Amino acid sequence: MILNLNPEDIKYVKILYQDYRERACSVRAAIRSISQAEIMCCAKFENGLDIKTPQEITLSIVCTAGLYRTKTTLKKIENDEPYTFFFLIPPSSLEYLQNREYFRVEITLDCIFSYRLNDEIINIQTHTNDLSASGVSIILPQREIGNENAWLNINTNQRQIKTKIKYIRDEKIDSGYKFSFSFTEISETDRDFISQICIKKQLEERRKYFK
């Protein structure tokens, strides 16, 4: 259970809840305290939150060693601007999913693949096929393509991520070739942001599956 985890190893948690319109929402929060009776988390919101409580929520715990997930109850929230505090019942068990560095999901994001050919920079506008905090696969029209000194610009709704990449493998598909790369130079902020995207995407897929 979560009480067996070292709080210093917990980077953050994701709380998946329903709003008053029964729409699925998620919030990233930090754990403030853990006891036998209660877990208190905190997130920053300028105008606070209005959430129906108590309610069953899905709790994802991103640790140094990996990603855990469980169901528990959100007992109440308290708004103390600019912060919102979440009070949870400690879960009795945790499901270990996998190391977050290799937490891969299928997702389509616009991106630009760039590499140097002689003295020329080649830019190819394309999209991702899947994504993780450690690497990505993209769709390219042809196989005879340079992969040394390559980099990638990935566009999301919130930010643009630029990273150097290293070729791993490729395979023929109907729309061209799927090229897989690992990230070789990426900021920890961007890596954590990608991890958040992957967690949110898997939660969306999980909700579809259990409908």
Question: What distinguishing features does this structure have?
Answer:
about 10% helix; about 210 residues
Describe the structure.
The protein has 211 residues and is mainly beta. The chain is built from one helix and 14 strands; from the N terminus they run ββββββββββββββα. A six-stranded antiparallel β-barrel has the order 1-2-3-6-5-4. A six-stranded antiparallel β-barrel has the order 9-10-11-14-13-12. Strand 2 (24-34) and strand 3 (39-44) form a beta hairpin. The chain is elongated and about 65 Å long.
Describe the secondary-structure layout.
Layout: E1 10-18, E2 24-34, E3 39-44, E4 55-63, E5 67-80, E6 83-88, E7 95-98, E8 105-106, E9 110-117, E10 120-131, E11 135-140, E12 150-155, E13 160-173, E14 176-185, H1 188-209
Antiparallel strand pairs: 1-2, 1-4, 2-3, 3-6, 4-5, 5-6, 5-7, 8-10, 9-10, 9-12, 10-11, 11-14, 12-13, 13-14
